[in-house]
Structure formats: structure tokens, C-alpha cells
Amino acid sequence: MHPRPIDWLIMAVYLGFVLAVGYLLRRDMKTSNDYFLSGRSIPGWVAGLAFLSANLGAQEVIGMAASGAKYGMATSHFYWVGAIPAMVFLGVFMMPFYYGSQARSVPEYLKLRFDEKTRGLNAMTFAVMTVFSSGISLYAMGLMLHLLLGWDFSVSVWLSAGIVLLYILLGGLTSAIYNEVLQFFLIVFGFAPLVFLGLKDLGGWSGLTARLTHVATSQGFAPRAWSSTWSEMAHAAANPLGVEWFGVVMGLGFVLSFGYWCTDFLVVQRAMAAHSLTAARRTPLIAAVPKMLFPFLVIVPGMIAIASTAQTGGSGFALPHKADGTLNYDLSIPLMLGHYFPNGMLGLGLTALLASFMSGMAGNVTAFNTVWTYDLYQAYIHRGASDHHYLTMGRLATVFGTLLSVAAAYVANRFNNIMDLLQLLFAFVNAPLFATFLLGMFWKRATGHGAFTGLLAGTAAAALHHGLTLPRGSPAGIKGGWLALLHSYPSEMAQNFWTAIWAFTVCFAVTVTVSLTTRPRPERELVGLVYSLTPAGREPAGPWYARPALLGTVVLAAVLLLNLLFW
Amino acid sequence: MGLDLRIPLGALFVALGVLLVAFGLASEPAIYARSLGININLWWGLALLGFGAATLWAASRARARR
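The joint structure predicted for all components is written out below.
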């Protein structure tokens, strides 16, 4: 890859705009409410695109293309099953409680609905998790820029962390949200021509699927295993994911997806910043529309990469091998940028890649500074100070949150297995969360003691399940089986899905049992927090796209159609 | 909120579009062998320019209405 001045100029123009947005917004940041929640003033479409973009970090872009190469079209389960239904549920059913309760963060909702200890547990694990995720995002970027452009790891880490820090410091959440929208369009405009050129090179969609047949049969799968979503899902052994349909629907589609999209403050914060309840409810629904088309932007490049590696197209693109002889799937998108884009477009493609790294990191930093300031500092360290004091604390938290992320990036660079271990622990903590929120919002009898013990039991169940099972062919240790071996799964993904299913079930059962034996809160305290005690808001009038329930139905119908088209 | 997001969004894509179109017109045709013979800088630059201009136009219309 040989960037020329035009490519650097394009990148510099983008970085200039990013900083200018932060600078122009600095005057609007007068109160902590402006800084952490954008003064609840963001229009629905802006919040919606930011909602999508905050999740569109580098791991997402690089990782989804890698999965597209490894597993083919079935990777779109992560969108059409593992994202859209949960986003619709959040917008239609859950947003009224998050937004209507005036909670400033997801942990604060837990405090209002349950009690202090449930909030404390959630806030603490979330704060640690965001810092490490943004560190891993930085680390991935440092590696990638070193590989593609020969940049020094430290230079790329400090430079991009510095830019993200500067624009959030100046313009708070609004700045992060505005920049996430710029990043969204850059990613779309940067990757769409790549898909176009790649498909054209292989002779269109039919040329791609013809080559994918070869990819599938040479690995002993049915011919359509790489180009279909559901047709090979009856048995785990019949598809490259190594999961059967029930694991996909329950583990990914229900537990993991609802647990992430409906409870992760990183995304929910974008909806909470919307200017009205209706706009907040429409935020995840608006995000769902581009989200359901993203497989064509990020998964199809991976499919093109593996197809041309198996049987090269006219221009001879192929994936390189790693030191251990396996294909380096992670390089699908970066190497295709270098292969198909001339200088000029190369700058745009690299900028899109950089934008995705920064949006992933900025989302984590803004979620961290809010949870730290409201749910840890104000709740446990310094109560009752002036608003100005908390605004200053938020800015400080932005600085040390960024510094901690940089530190985490260096740790990840030195000790890869520490990061694997941490991600595993976070998975245990997150797996049961949705059961707590589901019971909290829709069952008025659920109590604080029930929620707290349920969360702990769910996390323990996740750890126990992981300790007793292994993906077939893996050694006992970080992959599981560190207690004993009771069951082995056909793949790591199947094991993950079933860990989540167990954690959710145990958390649900324990929360219900403990709640029934402890004293419920008086009903008048739960108005606005629980479904059955909250007067149903009237669906706003207006065209179909302005009504959350109707828009949600249309989105679900569209995603069903996509599943059928690519069955 | 003081700043209409459509203004920096539109301006960014107008700037990127102008850069790509100018480079597409000035660059030697040989570099387009990798993009399958298409002058992708020129064509995609025009697309970015169009998107940026439309976004700015929407922002100015919203301002006039206020």
C-alpha cells in the first residue's frame, strides 16, 4: 500500500473537520446535562445514526469481514437475528422507561427501579469494561496502522487517542454524537465502492456465489454453505459456524443480542440524548434501517476476499497466510482497499477505517465519563456538590478514561492472554443482564435483593458452564473445561451461545425466587419504571415513520424479507 | 443545539468530493488499472459532491424556515 500526498490530504481534511466540530460545540457545554446528555436536544435521525456508529468500532468492521470470509453469508445472523429484533424491542418497549424515568444512565435506572447495590455492581463492571474495550480498539488500530502503513505503534495510539480526547473534552457527548454521524457516512462512502469493485471483478453476485460453492465443497460442506443464511442451519455440523438454529435463535438472537442492545449504556446513551420521548424511541428504529443493510457493506467484502482467494478473479486478489499457515482473515478489508483503490480513493478508504476506530473509542469514552461521574463519583465519593463541580469531574474523567485506555492498549500489546481473560470475564458479567432488565421493567414484584442475587448467580452460572464445557478439539484452559469436562460443543461459537443461555436462565430463576421471598417495593414508587404501573403513552400521530410501534413493525417485516431472500 | 450538524457534514463531503474530482481529472489513467479501468476518483468524487451539496441545501432551507 503506497499512499501519496492526495491520500494524506484527504485524511487531514477529515481530522480537521472532526476537531472543528468539537471546537464549534464548546460554547454549548454549560451544564453537566449538556456535557453528558447533550441537554436532551438531539434530533431522532442524528441520535439514530450515532447509535449505529457507536457500535461500529473497528472490531466490528474488521471482525465482521473476517467472519464473512470464515463463515460466509450466515454471518448476517449477527445483524438480522442478533441485532434488529433487539433494537426494535428497545425502541418500542423499553425506551419509555429509560427516557420517561429521567434516569441519566442505565445504572441509574437500576438504582431507581431496584436499589443502590444493583446499580453499584452494574456501574463498576461497566466502567472497567468500557475502558478495556476502548483500549482493545486502540490496540487493534495500532497493529493495523503498523501493518498497513508502517506507522509506529505508539505514534498511532497516542495520536488517535489525543484527537478523540480533544473533541470529547471540548464538545462532550454532542461532539461524540456529531462525529459519529460523520463517521457513519464516511464508512458507507468509503466501503461501498469496494464492494462494487470486488463484485464486478468476480462477475457480480452470481460470480461470487459460484466461487463460494468451491470454497464450501473443498471444506466438505454443502455447496450453499457460504452463500446462504438458514438452509444449512438444521445441524451444527452442516455449517461453518458450527451452531444449530436453536443456538442461533436463543443464544444469539435472544440472550446475547437483547443483553447488548437493550442494556449497554454505550448505545442507550445515544437514545437518551434525543430531544423527546418519541425521538428517543425512534432512535434505535432509525438505526435499524442502515443496520440491516450493513451485511452488504462489511460481510460481503470478506466473502469476496475468500472467494477470490479460492479461485482468483480477473485482478488476482488473494488473502495472505499467517505464520501458522492459516489464512489471515482479519486483513480482508484493509488489503482489498489497497488492491482495488487507486490513490485518492485509497485515502478515503483509509479514512473510513480510521473513522471506525475512532467512533468505537469515542463511544466508550463518553459512556465511561458519564457512568463514572453520575454513578460512581456522585453516588459514592462526593454527593451534593454543585453542577459545575460535576461538569469539571466529567472533563477530568474524559482525560483519565482516555489515559487508562492507552494504558490498556499497551497491556494488550504486551500480554495478549490477559485481554482474552478479561473479555471472558466481561462475557460472564454481561450474559445474565437482560434477565434483570426484563423482570425489572415487566414484573412489578421483582425486588432489589432478587435482582442483585440473580445477577451474581447468573455470572456464576456462566463461569461454571464455561468451566465444564469445551469446543471440540481445544485444550482445557482459557477456552473452557478448567473444572472438568462434561460436554463438548462443535464450535466456540456454540459454546458462547449456550453459556449465555445458561446465565440468562439461572439469573431469571434466581431473581424470581428471591423476589418472591423478599418484600416488594410499594407500587406507587414504581410508577414510570414498570410496564404495568405506567399509564400507556398514546402513540403519537403522524406518518407511519413517525410512530415507533408502526415503524418497528415495518423494520421487522423488512428484516424477515431479507432472511427469506437470502435463505 | 446551536450547530446544525448538516453544515459540517455537508461541508466535509463537498471538500472530499472536490479533492477526489480534481485528482481524478489530473491523475494519469494508468493508476486506474487496479479499479478495473474505472476512474473511480472522478465518479465517486462526483457522488460525494452531490451528497454534500444536498446536505448543505437541506441545512440552508431549514435555516430559512426558522
